[in-house]
């Protein structure tokens, strides 16, 4: 591997289970590979509107995804639990508040960005609990170690133009790189951005940037 650091941006939304898989694998590799990993909370709804349809709208694909995520979760050792009504839950949940809250954290308390994002996934994808209501957002923040005062302050920030615009800009940036879903991973290598879609392309990412792939759970 070359000694130069490769900036790797991870555009993600906590409503996306594949984003969780990609997030955990990149977290595991951030100290193994010469990468500068940057978390870029974005809004999947905005990307879908711009360039895609939810995969759950295609019955065969939805059926496959249920099995796929189960297998991937086991292989990646990430505790995604698929409930029977998973697609109703996803389609019935707006992640906008959660992603604005995560954006507010990114802007003011970036040291909490990784644990907070993880707690949102755990709540929605492991515990099958709601993440859209303010009290549930605050519960997630507590789990991630934020004080009640801080969490309350951040919750008030989510309606501010600064936070709304930042999330919108990040989402537009992902779309500009060519993203049509989540996770979207952009590696800045040899002076240009390389887009990788999905949690199962990280082996390919390693190959492009000259790093060794050691499986999804490198020891």
Automatic annotation (TrEMBL):
Q: Name one GO cellular component term.
A: mitochondrion
Member of which family? Belongs to the GST superfamily. Kappa family.
The protein's name in its UniProt record: Glutathione S-transferase kappa 1
Q: Which residues form the active site?
A: 16 (nucleophile)
Q: Which domain of life is it from?
A: Eukaryota
Keyword terms: Transferase
Recorded catalytic activity of this chain's protein: RX + glutathione = an S-substituted glutathione + a halide anion + H(+)
* Organism for this UniProt entry: Leptosomus discolor (Madagascar cuckoo roller)
User: Its Enzyme Commission number?
Assistant: 2.5.1.18
Which terms does the UniProt entry file under GO BP?
glutathione metabolic process
Domain DSBA-like thioredoxin stretches: 7-208
Give one GO term, molecular function aspect: glutathione transferase activity
Q: What class of enzyme is it?
A: transferase
């Amino acid at each position: 591997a070359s000694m130069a650091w490769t900036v790797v941006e991870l555009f993600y939304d906590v409503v996306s289970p594949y984003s969780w898989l990609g997030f955990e694998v990149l977290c595991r590799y951030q100290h193994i590979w010469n990468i500068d990993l940057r978390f870029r909370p974005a809004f999947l709804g905005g990307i879908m509107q711009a360039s895609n349809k939810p995969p759950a709208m295609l019955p065969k694909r939805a059926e496959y995804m249920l099995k796929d995520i189960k297998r991937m979760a086991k292989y990646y050792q990430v505790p995604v639990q698929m409930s029977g009504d998973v697609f109703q839950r996803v389609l019935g949940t707006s992640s906008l508040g959660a992603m604005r809250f995560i954006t507010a954290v990114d802007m003011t308390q970036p040291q909490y960005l990784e644990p907070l994002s993880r707690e949102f996934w755990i709540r929605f994808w492991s515990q099958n609990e709601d993440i859209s209501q303010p009290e549930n957002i605050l519960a997630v923040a507590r789990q991630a170690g934020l004080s009640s005062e801080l969490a309350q302050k951040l919750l008030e920030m989510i309606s501010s133009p600064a936070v709304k615009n930042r999330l919108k800009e990040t989402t537009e940036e992902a779309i500009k790189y060519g993203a049509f879903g989540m996770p979207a991973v952009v590696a800045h290598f040899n002076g240009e951005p390389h887009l990788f879609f999905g949690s199962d392309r990280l082996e390919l990412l390693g190959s492009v940037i000259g790093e060794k792939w050691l499986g999804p759970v490198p020891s």
